[in-house]
Design brief:
Four copies of one chain form a homotetramer. In chain A, helix 6 runs antiparallel to helix 19 and helix 9 runs parallel beside helix 19. Chain A has three domains: 88 residues, Cytochrome b5-like heme/steroid binding domain (Flavocytochrome B2, Chain A, domain 1); 341 residues, Aldolase class I (TIM Barrel, Alpha-Beta Barrel); 26 residues, no CATH class. Chain A is built from 21 helices and 16 strands. The longest helix of chain A has 33 residues. Chain A has an eight-stranded parallel barrel, surrounded by six helices. A four-stranded mixed β-sheet of chain A has the order 3-1-2-4. With 511 residues, chain A is an alpha/beta fold. Chains A, B, C, D: Homotetramer. Chains A, B, C, D: Keywords: Flavoprotein, FMN, Heme, Iron, Metal-binding, Mitochondrion, Oxidoreductase. Chains A, B, C, D: One of its GO terms (biological process) is lactate metabolic process. Chains A, B, C, D: It comes from Tilletiaria anomala (strain ATCC 24038 / CBS 436.72 / UBC 951).
Amino acid sequence: MLKYEEVAKHNTRDSCWVIVHGEAYDVTEFLPDHPGGSKIILKYAGKDATEEYDPIHPPGTLEQNLPKERCLGKVDPDTLKDGAAQLQRDKKEVGPSIKEDKIPPMELCLNLYDFEVVAKRVLKPTAWAYYSSGADDEVTMRENSGAFGRIWFRPRILRDVSKIDFSTSILGHKCSMPLYITATALGKLGHPDGEKNLTIAAGKEKIIQMIPTLASCSFDELVDARIDENQVQFFQLYVNSNRAITEKIVRKAEERGVKALFITVDAPQLGRREKDMRMKFDDVGSRVQNDNKDNVDRSQGAARAISSFIDPSLSWDDLNWFRSITRMPIILKGVQTWEDAVMAAELGLNGIVLSNHGGRQLDYARSGIEVLGEVVPKLRERGLFPNPMFQIFVDGGFRRATDILKAVAMGATAVGIGRPFLYAYSSYGWQGVQHAIQLLKAEMEMNMRLLGAPTLKDVVPEMVDTRALYTHTNTVPESSGSQVYEKMSTAIGKAGDAATIADIADKMSKL
Amino acid sequence: MLKYEEVAKHNTRDSCWVIVHGEAYDVTEFLPDHPGGSKIILKYAGKDATEEYDPIHPPGTLEQNLPKERCLGKVDPDTLKDGAAQLQRDKKEVGPSIKEDKIPPMELCLNLYDFEVVAKRVLKPTAWAYYSSGADDEVTMRENSGAFGRIWFRPRILRDVSKIDFSTSILGHKCSMPLYITATALGKLGHPDGEKNLTIAAGKEKIIQMIPTLASCSFDELVDARIDENQVQFFQLYVNSNRAITEKIVRKAEERGVKALFITVDAPQLGRREKDMRMKFDDVGSRVQNDNKDNVDRSQGAARAISSFIDPSLSWDDLNWFRSITRMPIILKGVQTWEDAVMAAELGLNGIVLSNHGGRQLDYARSGIEVLGEVVPKLRERGLFPNPMFQIFVDGGFRRATDILKAVAMGATAVGIGRPFLYAYSSYGWQGVQHAIQLLKAEMEMNMRLLGAPTLKDVVPEMVDTRALYTHTNTVPESSGSQVYEKMSTAIGKAGDAATIADIADKMSKL
Amino acid sequence: MLKYEEVAKHNTRDSCWVIVHGEAYDVTEFLPDHPGGSKIILKYAGKDATEEYDPIHPPGTLEQNLPKERCLGKVDPDTLKDGAAQLQRDKKEVGPSIKEDKIPPMELCLNLYDFEVVAKRVLKPTAWAYYSSGADDEVTMRENSGAFGRIWFRPRILRDVSKIDFSTSILGHKCSMPLYITATALGKLGHPDGEKNLTIAAGKEKIIQMIPTLASCSFDELVDARIDENQVQFFQLYVNSNRAITEKIVRKAEERGVKALFITVDAPQLGRREKDMRMKFDDVGSRVQNDNKDNVDRSQGAARAISSFIDPSLSWDDLNWFRSITRMPIILKGVQTWEDAVMAAELGLNGIVLSNHGGRQLDYARSGIEVLGEVVPKLRERGLFPNPMFQIFVDGGFRRATDILKAVAMGATAVGIGRPFLYAYSSYGWQGVQHAIQLLKAEMEMNMRLLGAPTLKDVVPEMVDTRALYTHTNTVPESSGSQVYEKMSTAIGKAGDAATIADIADKMSKL
Amino acid sequence: MLKYEEVAKHNTRDSCWVIVHGEAYDVTEFLPDHPGGSKIILKYAGKDATEEYDPIHPPGTLEQNLPKERCLGKVDPDTLKDGAAQLQRDKKEVGPSIKEDKIPPMELCLNLYDFEVVAKRVLKPTAWAYYSSGADDEVTMRENSGAFGRIWFRPRILRDVSKIDFSTSILGHKCSMPLYITATALGKLGHPDGEKNLTIAAGKEKIIQMIPTLASCSFDELVDARIDENQVQFFQLYVNSNRAITEKIVRKAEERGVKALFITVDAPQLGRREKDMRMKFDDVGSRVQNDNKDNVDRSQGAARAISSFIDPSLSWDDLNWFRSITRMPIILKGVQTWEDAVMAAELGLNGIVLSNHGGRQLDYARSGIEVLGEVVPKLRERGLFPNPMFQIFVDGGFRRATDILKAVAMGATAVGIGRPFLYAYSSYGWQGVQHAIQLLKAEMEMNMRLLGAPTLKDVVPEMVDTRALYTHTNTVPESSGSQVYEKMSTAIGKAGDAATIADIADKMSKL
């Protein structure tokens, strides 16, 4: 068995060993081919990289990409401990701003925003940056929530609302509410059990989970984590340029009992998310220092690194092929115009998800809920809505049962929620996810009662006023731009001797 | 007579005694049945609970719910004093942020907002939370005031406005202005005299008070508090699942001279108000501590606890029954669409209150004033407006005489104001309420003069421009959501050595 | 001659003497009749009241209101000095936040806002409160400026703009730009020369001044202050309930060469301005102290006190009478709807001022510029515009030449500016007013050049886009209301042990 | 050779010598004629003025304006060093807030905003003020960016986007993207190489540069700086009142290979930019001091001083003359209405730039992108669009590839970017500009992929929703005006003893 001290010697670009899950690997020759750049590996040259490796790579990644002879065998665990301790001292990594034993009790989370507020402090900054970031100036990400602020209710009175039933059926599968857990990547950044937390909570609350292609857990782990055999799961697919791999994945999903295939069509390339990208510069010094060094690694955040396999040439023509390799219903995830919605319906697909990928892809894409307001009337005009064989889903910015009810009133079968459940398990494990779902259910019951709608069928278009939904009156976005403009100066602010006066004036103006 | 020391021994779940109004009660067996949960009682096990008990329970509650034998008799007052002193020391409760002898003189309150600012500091945090909270993200609560900001005046000139008369008649009863005091619950949280403060001020200012079902004072107390026999009162009714109880209440109200019955139709269940709910977690420790304890009591605020009797199956069919048991005019409180307004008018009811329950029930319900703008034209189209036998009332967010005049111009007979009067008596007793009404009257006189309208009949639809009223351009609501998004980082904000630079930059950007 | 010590003894309600301009008066019997309340006089009982008396009362007020025998004669100036020194020590009045010798050089004022920023610090708080205050929540006052933000330019290119001419003619009188100085009250609050500063600057810059009824200077003083005989002045009239007084005033104005009569029609009563009112409570203690005292004087600010003579019964029928007593052109100041504009034009009056009295009267009255957009098309439809015999003026919120050019493009002959000139002379005397006018002229020249409009005739309706002008999307007004709502709490904000965490979190969220 | 000590003696208005580039000049007689005022020269009387002289004056200015005999010859460099050191000590000028060796590494700049944030700290305050300032209240300058916030995307899916091509052709010249570097003045304020930085980066990235009339570098320097002979440059022209000079400039540009002539038509006079103007008062003391001094120099910022030659009488009639002196295509820069766009097209010109001069000329001019939305449909109606011989360009506020794509979708051939490139080279030289262009290209590739548009031809009008673009709902501009209004007071804020309470309350309200 190798000793840690031996591994530690190979800590250069010329001979670079790393330890993952107790085994040492020689990655010297692999360095230039690493999709995430060589620099991130060199950071761990001669060290144990498991902690950083794990959330980004599904089980088996290393084995599939390295020749067997590069695996150098187990490292003596006793020597490893010292190494780990040394590593901790070396890293000085910025950790969460709240220690685990100070996390507020889960019961203090009264709504889905609360989980986000807690997670912001519980997650490591890099994980927070990856989960919470959006495209460009994050205008679309904010708009996703903001759009609900332009839809208002028209509640009815004096209806018998003693019994409220919000159960429904998605693609023929019963579930407890018009909600599914949508696919999100790199689940282990938030919690060692990764997406399994979602599987368990979904099972317990009779909610459907959509398994992501880019999960930290392996596909099998997530299927195996179901609480019983009847638990329904869907699968989200990034299509690989190598169709053979895609075919293998799809066939396996069907074999293992997955009930529907959601093909992502809004991400031919994964987005530039600057909050995430800034995190990669942690160890970059000042300009002067850098001039004497290697080129800075222009790593562009976690997602970019792992998404190079996605096929940007995917087109409408490919859809028949998918129908030839699976009997699962096929749904397009990421439709953003009525024109594409009509095409999908006319092609006989089984549904669409109106989504902008959580505001992480194209900035100034409209919110899913706004697109829903455009899509349904156009489908209806063409006799394509309502249609039990073609269901409409929406995701993006859903945080409240009122948000869900707005979507249902406007014609959605169900809505997808992603980030809030990641935040929930990052702090509280699967129990957090369950608590979040239960909070939504409590809100659903209350709000349907107050709407005068005992069942989802009673949640009709007339119950929402969407006239303002299509009005976008943002001025300078509350993001990058607003940090650039300066408040204007005044006579007082510039008078030669007015430094102190200006201070006083400023304080006065704030009273 | 019992001694306090004896009571103090029964301070566990297995034997739990409490003192209320000088008498001891054994509530051990009642613990699991308490609508507000057992935990809140256990907090006072072996102690005097009068102070917390009083504002939440109308007189007689204890007697009606406990078997007589559980009343253990009077506690020796001398021993009780020591107990009270001990309790004070134990409680360390967070009190108001302003001491009573430092309350600003009432004359400094120049408008209804001022009472709210003062009350925020005079009230205990729990009382403030109960009174001031709204549903979910409090979007509707804020919109209730905000909607008035989208209605502008078209004042006329050169009319003789030497005499201004804003007296009117509500359901046939004269009153000094188009205003009534609407029903609010738990009045003793703000002041030991509770809703009696409203009764006295209403009498003195010739305003009509609507007595609430959930008053802290008993119904009889509020009727008896009238300053003379001619003082008019209305009654607000939450309908009980047990109709016999409801019938008893309604018949009694009529017998005691109440002049109209306002049936609440927007609250089949009382709302989730998170500001209120958060207060209930005061004594909850950190996560670690809690893991070793009983389940946390998921008490959801004061109102939820006391409202379980409300019948969620109440429907249009029940209205004939009400007409069979009373000759009082019947008004529906909580109408929010023109469809329901038309139904009420066609059914021959005597009026409607356009209300969203002060923003405390369904978030994103529209403001009463906006609904008024929708309802009146639809009634007019059908020949149902104007109609002296079917009056329209509005409440929600009224703070200024200009608000009232906007409603009158748009067709309302009168408007209801609730919270501001609670705030007024919380700091200044009934004199505060009277002062608040007098301020409104002063504003009414001034503003009618400036509008060129000597009487309420002269306040016509052409005097308001409501075109913008129906425009909702909120983006991310200024509440939960806006606390979640982060300002974006910049190159300076992340440079390795820029910590101090960023500080300077931030300060600079604020100059 | 009286000695100061003698006067000083009469310092009670039972015997109250005051000194004004070196003469002592016995005002004991006058106390209850003082329009501003007795309390303000008692503050100066036995003292020299000149400084507070002067700006509020035009010369001669005392003589006209007190019986001659109450004038007790001159006070020995030597003894008075000591008294004045004593008074200074007694007063401890809050003064300006900037000392006179630290006022920034006038050249630092680059626009009209600058004068306001400086004046805010140069004026005594009471004077600032009187000048700067608006009605109720000051929504209309802010809207007056804000409305210009909804009008945008459509500038034309490649026109010869080497010579720019913005001179014009108002009611037949030539002036150097489409601007007049509008009437404002109590000019000595800002500067001992009061409105004379305006007269001088207007003369030097060939601008017309409108003399106010409520000037601190007497009418004669302001006419005498003209820099030459050809300087044109207008007169603003508050109509007295005693028409004989009004007739005397009007006839005198015409005799002394005033060229037009602007009758104020938007102020049958002067407004409630709470910022001004709050100043009157300076010496009010806490509640407890007050309970043992006299009733607090509910003085409602300076303007209310001096405006009781205004006739609220003034109506259209009175206008013929005005035409019978003067040959001056008659203009209605304060028209706010097209209906009244049409009536004025059809009646053969000579013009109207679209104004809401600087936002000081009816809150939620629309801005003059918005009303202009409504009035002109309606007059045009009826063949009443353009009409050289019926000119349209606007005031309210004008601060930039672009504001003026927007009004001209929309059909105004000229605009009125008031407060900014008060602010200008408060810091810099008449030179400040001149500088302010010169700044506006420099802006006019630049902006007409950039608009492609060499003369005012070239400033046509097509040069402005006013489509957004009629959109009012304010939500909660940025004034009283916005101070009442609280930011919502979160799980972190309320966790038992999270006090410090919340602090950190708050700081983090601000980075 | 002169010694520095000799020069230093001539430091008064009566005998004023200055040193520029090592030569001494006697400027005594030139003082009153200096377009920027005499004061700024007197500041350097007897001293070396090179540093301040250089960025504002193109090479040769001094030689052309002074008689030869006023050049006194070289100053001994050894003596000059001491003088320079002395000058440094004298100046105490406020420098940048970030030292050069602390500038963040260029790689930290992830978008164009980042360069601005860095430059704000790297530039001297005077340079920052000149570059970043806008007209009046900077409303148009902010709107230029803000307008993009009202245009949203309608992206299409399932299109083959494996290859993205955003190359295009401007006026027949190929370039790598639909972008050119637009003309900006005084480039040496930011970097000693001035506009040459732009030339080099443009060459390397195959982008076209527009050479400005008011460059700090001479025209020849910028042509010579091209990286090869095929590099395309355009020329921006301010037309001189003296047409002979203009003709000379234009002919020279054509001779030296410039490919197009952009005639500025929105600046008959250069704008009042108050941020820039305030900088000129640096050495102005308090009022008292000033009263004893010379008149303050009312210098109005750098640009005003150097622009007096611009001909304000330029008109449509002059355009034929331009066509007679050059065969270069002629484009009008600064068109702001459809009327003028139609005139330009009908006149057979080669294109227009929809621009408001970066918000530096007429405040409340609309953004170029908004004008584009007005112009294209009107041209189309008249059969003037699309037209390969008449291209439409836009500038103002472009910061993101999404901004560029919006303009392309709406009909623009290319867009101009100015300030961001100045900021880029101010911190990082030409490499900064190159990095900025590369960032835009990375964004272009990503965003076209996400839009479903492999080439610029696929970026069609249906891909943008511009319905909200024409809605201007600004209220009080977030600039001068907003600093003038005060938050309203409340009862608590004014209570006699409430000073500390108000403090607490204020802090509470911020939690």
